[in-house]
Design a protein that fits this description.
CATH architecture: 4-Layer Sandwich
Number of domains: 1
Number of strands: 14
Number of helices: 10
CATH class: Alpha Beta
Order of helices and strands: EEEHEHHEHHEEEEEHEHHHEHEE
Strand content: 15-25%
Radius of gyration: 19 Å
């Protein structure tokens, strides 16, 4: 059994709340520490449910800045204040991460809006323990004996537009002494991600069913224009992964095991899981799992 593990804290596809799944957040548990990956709403509660000590989580890696992936950032500042955090919390993410955090930290200085602790109590301020860093595609960070590397993916734009102005979405690879794991984040088909994932022991990848998502959008937004619906469908089909595309990614990368997260459907059943596993397995011969919250791999 490897010491380095991937824990799926939140496996929902965002951004709307799901009754049986929490928003995107995951943890890497390695010999010596814990790395939080994405920070969707409820991430710190899920860490607690998984048995982690929040004060011992020293690193957070953000894939991109959509709300479903960063919804607990402000809560994380307040929680660590209340717990008297006495060591840095290092937060890494694509360009814009430092700016977002600077505004959240500044909000902690608004006495009329924010109240922490009790009168006369002294708490550490987030600026005393938050260390943020914008990282670029191709950067690598060493966390103890785990090397974290990244590439840009196609959640925001096609690969022929990489390097242009605009938001950046990242995929991450975690290479520990005992195994290698890759998290796709949100992405469409992507050659750079295939290369990043080459030979990994575990690939944790996003999954979408555009038909289900579009049916839900139409039901909740009956007056949405055809043009807006077309743009939504285009985003889902180009900037996310169908079960077949996820299987193709795993197969071309030559990974050993595939775990699907960012699950778009609301309810959960063994028959539904089996249907998506069959679609993925038509393209990938390795082990496939449709994950649940708080599962460990």
């Amino acid at each position: 059994m490897p010491k380095t593990k991937f824990i799926t804290l939140g496996t929902a596809g965002g951004p709307t709340p799901k009754p049986n799944r929490m928003p995107p957040a995951h943890a890497i548990s390695y010999d010596g520490g814990t790395i939080l990956v994405d920070c969707g709403e409820g991430a710190f509660q899920q860490l607690t449910r998984a048995g982690f000590d929040l004060k011992k989580v020293r690193e957070l890696f953000i894939t991109h800045h959509h709300f479903d992936h960063i919804g607990s950032l402000f809560a994380g500042l307040g929680l660590n204040m209340m717990m008297h955090r006495d060591q840095p919390l290092n937060i890494y993410g694509p360009p814009g991460t430092c700016e977002i955090l600077s505004h959240l930290i500044a909000a902690c200085d608004i006495p009329q809006a924010i109240g922490f602790g009790v009168p006369g109590q002294t708490l550490p301020h987030p600026r005393d323990f938050i260390v943020s860093r914008d990282i670029q595609p191709g950067d690598a960070v060493d966390i103890d004996n785990v090397r974290v590397s990244c590439c840009e993916n196609t959640h925001y734009r096609p690969e022929d537009q990489f390097g242009q102005e605009g938001p950046v979405s990242l995929s991450y690879r975690f290479d520990a002494p005992d195994r290698s794991m890759v998290f796709t984040g949100d992405t469409g088909p992507c050659r750079a991600l295939e290369n990043l994932a080459k030979g990994a022991d575990l690939l944790v990848g996003e999954l979408i069913d555009a038909d289900i998502v579009m049916d839900r959008i139409r039901a909740k937004n009956p007056v949405m224009s055809d043009q807006a619906l077309h743009k939504m469908l285009q985003h889902f089909t180009e900037h996310h992964l169908t079960p077949e595309e996820l299987g193709e990614l795993a197969s071309r990368a030559g990974v050993r095991q595939l775990v699907a997260v960012h699950i778009p459907f609301v309810t959960k059943s063994a028959d539904e899981d089996a249907k998506y596993i069959r679609r993925i397995s038509a393209k990938f011969a390795g082990r496939v799992t449709i994950s649940e919250d708080l599962a460990e791999y």
